Amino acid sequence: MDARIHSLQFWLTKQIERLDPGAFALVMATGQRELSDALLAVTLIAYCSLGALTVLRAALFWPRLRADLINPGLVFSFFTIVAATGVFGSGIDLRGFASVAQALWVFALIAWLVMTYFSFGVLTFFNTPHGADVVRGGWLIAIVATESLVMLGSAVARTFGALEPGIFVLLHMFWGIGLALYGIYIALFAYRIFFFAVVPDDLTPILWVVIGAAAISTNAGADLILNGSGVAFLTSMRPVVGGVTLIIWAWATWWIPLLVLFGIWKHLLRRVPLAYTPMLWGLVFPLGMYSLASFRLALAADFPALRLVSHTMVWIALAAWLATSAGLAATSWKSFRDTIRGVDRV
Q: What DSSP string describes 175-219?
């Protein structure tokens, strides 16, 4: 029995040491605002657990964490902490915990400020020609994190009292920054995949965040339209916000068949086995966010037909979430079982 307990401790220690920098994508994929209280409970457990594991990793395995932080190909994955906080906070706010949601937004804002300049500093000073291949999609998480601040911020702005108008000005700025980063990324990404050789390893599930970043930008734009700021200047911008929001939703829609084609080429034509990886949560999140974006755009544009798109996609997103959760459970069990067997052989 002592050996089994020791093996469990050893397994947990290894999981903490190897914790993926983008692990919070699990929270992003689970914490969509309109889903059930049961999934929100899963989100709460996952968010708190991953937060505790990240703190433990920093305390016990700082060299490994530091190596990830100064890796141009991995540093942007830490933006999942910001994005997960924003998505989780939106669900919390919907259930009436406005003060908790406000605190989460402040935390996300501070984390975003730190991570933005740190990550782009790493990209500038530590990068090599192949160190942060843009096709890997790392920047996309930074865009998602930026727009998640707009989503949660528009929901909690009222809690800031006299500061509410200023908060909405700030949110419009964040929305624009996210769109600017997305435009830069897409230009580089299109150049990379259309003018250089692409191998199966380049086409990872994280590429679906191309859709997720556009979808959450759509969501943020719709929230800015639906939540009146009371600032005359911002009110005059609504037609611009509405037009750009529709265009970015159309752009997200355009990518869906192409990314499906990428998957067919990789797994059916090139016969690469489909196996669980934490990056699969980067596929689940865009599906759910696209569903929510379609629904919010239907409200902002007063175009009910888009609700059918939303209702269809939410079932696809749920199926993907269940399949990925099963993969996580199976992979974790296999890892634990192999550890136990190794101890037993000793």
A: HHHHHHHHHHHHHHHHHHHHHS---GGG--GGGGHHHHHHHHHHH
Q: How many CA within 13 A on the CB side of residue 229?
A: 23
What single letter denotes the amino acid at residue 289?
M
145 in any annotated domain: yes
Q: Return the CA Rg of the chain.
A: 20
pTM flag (> 0.70): yes
The lowest-confidence range among 30-39, 188-197, 290-299 is 30-39
* Residue 344 belongs to some domain of the structure: no
User: Are the C-beta atoms of 299 and 226 separated by less than 8 Å?
Assistant: yes
Q: Distance (Å, rounded) from C-alpha 55 to C-alpha 328?
A: 22
Residue 291 CA to residue 286 CA, distance in Å, equals 8
CA-CA distance, 68 to 46, in Å (whole number)?
Answer: 21
Amino acid code (one letter) for 121: G
Which residues have C-beta within 8 Å of that of residue 45, sequence separation ≥ 6?
none
Total domains present in the chain: 1
Q: Look up tokens 């994508």; give the residue.
A: 25
Q: Dump pLDDT digits (tens) for 53-63.
A: 999 999 999 99
Phi and psi, residue 301, nearest 5° = -95, -5
Domain range spanning residue 165? 2-339
At residue 273, the 3 state secondary structure works out as coil
Instruction: Fill in the amino acid letter for 321.
Output: W
CATH of the domain at 251: 1.50.10.150
Side-chain half-sphere exposure of 306, counting CA atoms within 13 A: 18
pLDDT tens for 330-342 read: 888 887 777 666 6
Tokens 């929230």 correspond to what residue? 223
Give the position of tokens 């000005």: 169
